[in-house]
Amino acid sequence: MYVVLGANGRAGGETARALIDRGEAVRVVLRQAEQGEKWRALGAEVAVAHIEDADALAEALHGAAGAFLLNPPPVSGDPFARTAELGAALAEAARRAHLPRAVVLSSIGAQHAAGTGIIATLNRFEALLDGAAPATAFLRSGYFVETWSEVAGAALSEAVLPSFLDPAQKIAMVSTIDVGRTAAALLCEDWTGRRVVEIAGPQDWSAGDVAAAFALALGRPGGRGLRAGSRPPGGAGAGSARAPRRVAGRGGCARYGGARAARHV
Question: 194-206 burial by CB neighbour count: b if 16+ within 10 A, else e?
Fold first, then answer.
């Protein structure tokens, strides 16, 4: 049986679905019991726990062959303090539950302790989870392609694709479907030790490339009338967009779920 945190989010949800599709028993960990109906309908077990509650998490992880762990994006407050709190609770819970294998969602660029904005929290998160399970993989993902759906309305109504990314800067992007399939594959493989897996799409894209893709889909070939703009939609705050990411170099490539993934130990 495999435990998945964040199942009602993008990456966690795709990981749970990928495990279920593989015929594996799954336990999703949610904050509220009423959020679990759709997962019960798919045959998953539902546990209720807050990530910062080490006691409840240890119980949720008990008996698992592996778990998908993550650091949810901070809604408010100090993201570094929140990361320290959640990372310590997760590490303690994993050790107390004797969790044999963990796949920890991270980001490309998490190897840097500074200079990457909010991604630097994942550098600390990795450090806290390192060694929490005998087999621990840090799944460093590119920018989620699905994130662009959050600004699709502005692209339609304002002819501007809101983003804090440099319109010309190409970065690694990937679908959360591929992230979930990769996480499921790693959980089901037989291995021990520490692994780092970077996952990205077949090529890097810029916000300008995404604007051009939106324009094509809207029947505006060549990007006519649609551009990438350095602002959030509708004057919203920074929580509506992601900060720019520094992309690390990638080595030899393997394939998981249709995306390229470079493995580093």
Answer: ebbbbbbbeeebb
Q: Which structure tokens are listed for 124?
A: 């600390």
d(CA 136, CA 130): 7
Q: Distance between CA 186 and CA 208 in Å, rounded?
A: 33
Q: Residues 199, 204, 206, CA angle at the centre, nearest 5°? A: 130
Structure tokens at 179: 């992230």
Q: DSSP states of 125-180 as a string? A: HHHHHTTSSSEEEEEEE-EEGGGGGGGHHHHHHHSEEE-SS-TT--B-EE-HHHHH
Judge contact between 181 and 257, C-beta under 8 A: yes
* Integer Cα distance of 61 and 27 in angstroms: 9
The shares of helix, strand and coil residues in the chain, as percent rounded to the nearest 5, are 40, 25, 35
Render pLDDT for 34-79 as a digit per residue (tens, 0 to 9): 889 999 999 999 999 998 999 999 999 999 999 999 998 877 889 9
Dihedral class, residue 208 (left if φ above 0, else alpha if ψ from -120 to 50, else beta): alpha
| Number of helices (H), then strands (E), in the chain | 8, 13
Q: Radius of gyration over alpha carbons of the chain, in Å?
A: 19
Which DSSP state fits 165?
Answer: S
Model-wide pTM > 0.90: no
Tokens of 250: 């990638």
Question: Do residues 186 and 103 lie in contact, with contact meaning Cβ atoms separated by under 8 Å?
Answer: yes
Any bridge partners for residue 112, and if so which?
Answer: none
